[in-house]
Amino acid sequence: MAPVGAGSGAGRHHIVSVLVENKAGVLARVASLFSRRGYNIYSLAVAPTDDEKLSRITIVVDVESSPLEQILRQLDKLINVVDIFELAPEDATEREMLLATVSATPADRGQVISLVGVFEGKIVDVGRERITVMLAGSPSKIDDFENLIRPYGIVELQRTGRVALPKLERRAARLRSIAGGSDTGTPVQ
Amino acid sequence: MQLTGAQALIKSLEMQKVEVIFGLPGGAILPVYDPIIDSSIRHILVRHEQGAGHMAEGYAHVTGRPGVAMVTSGPGATNIVTPLADAMMDSIPIVVITGQVATTSIGTDAFQEVPITGVTMDITKHNWLITDVNDIPRVVAEAFHVATTGRPGPVLIDFPKDIANQMMDWYWPSSLDELDLPGYHPRTTGDAAEVRRAAELILAAERPVLYAGGGILKAHGADALFELATRTGIPVVTTLMGRGTFPDSHPLCLGMPGMHGNYTAVTAMQRADLLVALGSRFDDRVTGKVAAFAPDAKIVHIDIDPAELGKVRRPDVGIVGDARIVIEQMLEALGALGLGAPGTDPGPGTAAAAQPDLGPWITQIRAWQEEFPLTYNQVEGGALKPQYVLEQLRDMSPDDTIVASGVGQHQMWASQYWRFDHPYTWVNSGGAGTMGFAVPAAIGAKVGRPDKTVWAVDGDGCFQMTAQELVTASAERIPVKIAILNNAYLGMVRQWQELFYAERYSEVYLSPDLPDYVKWAEAMGCVGLKVESAEEVAPAIEKANGIDDRPVVIDFRTDAFEKVYPMVPAGASNDDIIVGPSEGEGGR
């Protein structure tokens, strides 16, 4: 389970959006690189893009484990990595989804439902003593919801990990230029 | 034209102008071995798959062309994992083809099934599992392209048995555009503004050092480096992987830096105000304690791998590019700043005209060289010193002899005492430190350069790991020469136990005559010689150099207590270099 409030730890976490070839074993190569070089993955989401030859891996990395620049340059060396965008949290539109089965006894059920309503979530399954809710939104909103719902008793909870795209008004610099070597002034130690 | 997958694979290798494959057949790769009979490509049958991998590396080291090895699935494939890791560390282009069980059996734990693409994912530059017979020519072309461009490295193609037997319509990719490598665009030309900044730093430095690594060899940049050093008058250190990039006999060459580098090379880097790193990577064996490494030096770092810039030490100027191309750009930039050929006057008012006089720096370097040369003491009638053997071997062999070595004391002595005056004459396992590298690597080197004398300098521990490939050498008439510096110990480990474990020797003794190296050599079809004293050294070398129809092994019985100096203890600052044994230092 995600640590409480960690999703909003913007200083430590950076979002790396990696465009990869949609071929067998590519995710393993990316994961193996992180493991081998001791980089920490906070969350990971993978899905095909509109181009069937490409997939997008959205990785939230803990930049305290290693300098971001070194992570990006090592990633860029993977032959199947086509492009990399690094998104500072303030430059990104991020979303995440949560599914949670919450204990909701007849006494509590009304409060749980109203909380779900406030957060614009959905109730997707109902049992005698439990309900399953779905919520999509910014990671901090998901964190808040998770914290508020916890006292009622979380039976099971699953978050998807973040997906992100650059904010439209300030599209982040493409990392290709760093990988290409024109930028060498960034501190990396 | 319809071909089987196996035929298409061999034809693809022919299209890549492969002249030799080092390999050993087995079940899954069987179909591919059939068309080899009809191919122009020479196949060298090794005795162990590790030998095939190191031979391919040795071949690549000396020719600059990719070495090719072919083995079967399962244990055949895992036996070549060590050479892949070795080639990855030292950026050696090799192409390894492994047989694989049929695609229909993959994942069922079939006989001799090992998921070798998964196993080698982190120790190849890239690997491929072929799942469609029609992909074969394209994947082979991609594999050679990836192995040889950018930062070179090992690649692996896993080739399932059923694919080998399927039919395909032959084609060959006519250009790079037909390859499917959308994410692979190595950059070779340096950024012009950064090159100019580097040139300005060079002209402003009072104590500069060129820190030349193996990347220059890969880039075929030795001539460019020579021009840069001689035009600027800047001294050069050549790393373990870069020995031979700049001639040892040139006055500007300071030799090898690092843990067992000579005092002057190590100290010149420590005191430098500018290090120009060319295709070198601030390896821990060079830097010692990173925080204390070259504390006053500005860093210009040139490397074709962007991830090397700033990985260990943040550069003041970092340039991504091919070492040769960037050095040539730098020469142009230096010219624009007024620095022409040696002896020409810089124009008035140029940066070159204001260049500090390097005279005091060179004077300081000469003083270090005089005060702290490499030394050893061969006593007449005393135990045979390994350094003496190497000096004799060096002086009695042709100037362009190729030297291969294993890993340990003998490797360091070979690097210290040989005079490398030509690029591509030093074949060695630097990053991975693979014991047993020398014999097969020397064989691969001799196959690549049959015109040259090839000596392997080996230790007795290393020799026992891969000696069986001398059977290959005898059978294939590859006349390599092996000098075993036989001190009856795992010598480097023994040295560390002596110095850092209070002379508590744990599992390092090997025995000088078990095995009997002469008999072993003879059993493998080689000439075997034994040398026990200094007087016997020269005659034995002379005899060995006169033999050209079979391999020769000389068992040099050397002093077991000789240690490699200078030495920077692991984790210490390079300022704490130990020049030689202390008074009364333990011998046993």
Determine the most extensive contact between two protein chains.
A-B, 33 and 32 residues
By CATH, the superfamily of the largest domain in chain B comes out as TPP-binding domain
> So what's the CATH class of the largest domain in chain A?
Alpha Beta
Oligomer: heterodimer
CA-CA gap between termini of chain B: 70 Å
Radius of gyration of chain B: 25 Å
**Count of domain modules of chain A:** 2
Explain what this protein looks like in three dimensions:
The complex is a heterodimer of chains A (189) and B (588). With 189 residues, chain A is α+β, with helices and mostly antiparallel strands. Chain A has helices spanning 26-37, 68-77, 106-118, 139-149, 176-179; strands spanning 13-21, 40-48, 54-62, 81-87, 92-103, 122-126, 130-137, 154-159, 163-166. In chain A, the strands form 2 sheets. In chain A, strands 5, 6, 7, 8 and 9 form a 5-stranded antiparallel sheet that branches. In chain A, strands 2-3-1-4 form a 4-stranded antiparallel sheet, with helices on one face. Chain A is elongated, with a radius of gyration of 19 Å. Residues 1-10 and 175-189 of chain A have low confidence and may be disordered. Chain B has 588 residues and is an alpha/beta fold. Chain B folds into 3 domains: 2-178, Thiamin diphosphate (ThDP)-binding fold, Pyr/PP domains (Rossmann fold), CATH 3.40.50; 192-371, TPP-binding domain (Rossmann fold), CATH 3.40.50.1220; 386-565, Rossmann fold. In chain B, helix 1 crosses helix 2, helix 11 (222-232) packs parallel to helix 14 and helix 12 packs antiparallel against helix 15. Classes of the chains: A alpha+beta (189), B alpha/beta (588). The interface between A and B is medium-sized, with 33 and 32 residues.
